[in-house]
Amino acid sequence: TRKVSGLDSNSGSGNPAARHGLLSKELLVPREDKGALQEFSNRLREELRPQGALEELLVMRIVAAAWRLQRILRFERELFKADLEESQRLWTKCNLDERPKPTLGEAVSERTYDKIIRYEAHIERTLYRAMHQLERIQRSRSGEAIPPPLVLDGA
Fold it and tell me: Is there a contact between 1 and 9 (Cβ–Cβ < 8 Å)?
């Protein structure tokens, strides 16, 4: 079992991030549809039209980052829903009628949410960096003048 930012990366653990594949080194994790990934990859390849090994590598990085970003967004929705339902169940069980039911923001711990935001930001930076590199290579290949990068995406 390996610790990453305080989270257990063992997919058999009770940790929701590990169970949902947020820390997975594999692109496709259990419960994800291989056909959906292939279709997603094909659509991006068709749109980005890579030529040559370097462009293909960048498109592979774009596919992987975009797929992982979608996974994080699904995980975030599931986490918020589950935490809210659990918090509201406990509220009802403890007869806390004099207090308002917990809201979505109160249900998910700040620490958990911060970790999700960090994962999301890292994957977005990876995605945008690969997209910018691909764009510059493709513009150069087509003979366009390439201005210096002006993107300030925190990379």
Answer: yes
Q: Could you report the per-residue pLDDT of 48-64, keeping only the tens digit for each?
A: 999 999 999 999 999 99
Q: Considering Cα of 9, then 12, then 13, then 16, what sign does the dihedral take?
A: positive
- 130 Cβ contact list (under 8 Å, min separation 6): 58, 61, 62, 65
Query: pTM above 0.70?
Result: no
Amino acid at 75: F
* Distance separating alpha carbons of residues 23 and 49, to the nearest angstrom: 30
Q: What does residue 3 show for φ and ψ, rounded to 5 degrees?
A: -95, 130
Q: Give the whole-angstrom CA distance, residue 57 versus residue 63.
A: 10
Orientation of helix 52-93 relative to helix 34-48, angle to 10°? 130
Q: If you average pLDDT over residues 12-29, what whole number do you get?
A: 61
Structure tokens at 143: 């003979």
Cα–chain center distance at 5:
16
Backbone torsion region of residue 10, taken as left when φ is above 0, otherwise alpha when ψ lies between -120 and 50, otherwise beta? beta
Rounded CA-CA distance 60/57 in Å is: 5
Evaluate whether 37 touches 26 at the Cβ level (below 8 Å): no
